[in-house]
Amino acid sequence: MSLAKSTRIAADAAMRAIELAEKNERAYLFPGITNLHWNPDIKQAVFSIGISNDGQSLGLLKKIYWQFSEIEPIGDPVYIDGESRHFDLSFPAHTPNKQLPLCLQTIVGALTQYFFGYVEYIDVFKKTHTTRFCLCIAAQMPKADVAGPPAWNDWD
């Protein structure tokens, strides 16, 4: 085997090792709902957003986007007429459900509705990632369950 071929094989192996390390050692941020309270008089829920980092290293939350709908999303994710907030909040590895400084209210009068959107964050390798979420909030629970097609609950 030539020196050039041996060098190429070693370089390819090193690149695969780096890619695997980044995938295994990075942050994975996932949003959820905390402190959900249902007001039956006006048929509205009030809640906070919690972020968990299920990864092996620090994640830096940069943005959260959300919107509400009385109709469950279908197809590929499309986001229009929602709201967003920008942050510079760090989430250490294995952080369970750290509450954001944000209190949200659902649509008044809807007994079942969908809360969906995405978070953008940066990992320790300085790569930006997106986690999409779609949750159903129903008065009879009152809790939030994962809803929508897989594309609406995906991450990179």
The total beta strand count reads 8
The main sheet orders its strands as 4-3-6-7-8
| CATH class descriptor name | Mainly Beta
Task: Count every helix, treating DSSP H or I runs of 4 or more residues as helices.
Answer: 1
CATH topology: Immunoglobulin-like
Q: How would a crystallographer describe the biggest sheet?
A: 5 strands, antiparallel
Architecture per CATH nomenclature, i.e. the level-2 architecture: Sandwich
Helical proportion? 10-25%
Could you list the spans in which at least 5 consecutive residues all have pLDDT below 50? none
Report mean pLDDT, rounded to a whole number. 89
What is the ordering of alpha helices and beta strands? HEEEEEEEE
What's the overall geometry? Answer: elongated
Please tell me how large the radius of gyration is: 20 Å
- What would you call the structural class? mainly beta
Fill in the keyword field for this structure.
5-stranded antiparallel beta sheet, single chain, mainly beta, 51% strand, 3-stranded antiparallel beta sheet
Describe the protein.
The chain is mainly beta. It has a single domain, classed as Immunoglobulin-like, CATH 2.60.40. It contains one helix and eight strands. It has one helix spanning about 5-25, and strands spanning about 30-40, 45-55, 60-70, 85-90, 95-105, 110-125, 130-140, 145. The strands form two sheets. The chain has a five-stranded antiparallel beta sheet with strand order 4-3-6-7-8, with no helix packed on it. The chain has a three-stranded antiparallel beta sheet with strand order 1-2-5, with no helix packed on it. A hairpin with a 4-residue loop joins strand 7 and strand 8 (about 145). The longest helix has 23 residues, at about 5-25. The radius of gyration is 20 Å and the shape is elongated. About 20% of the residues are buried. The mean pLDDT is about 90.
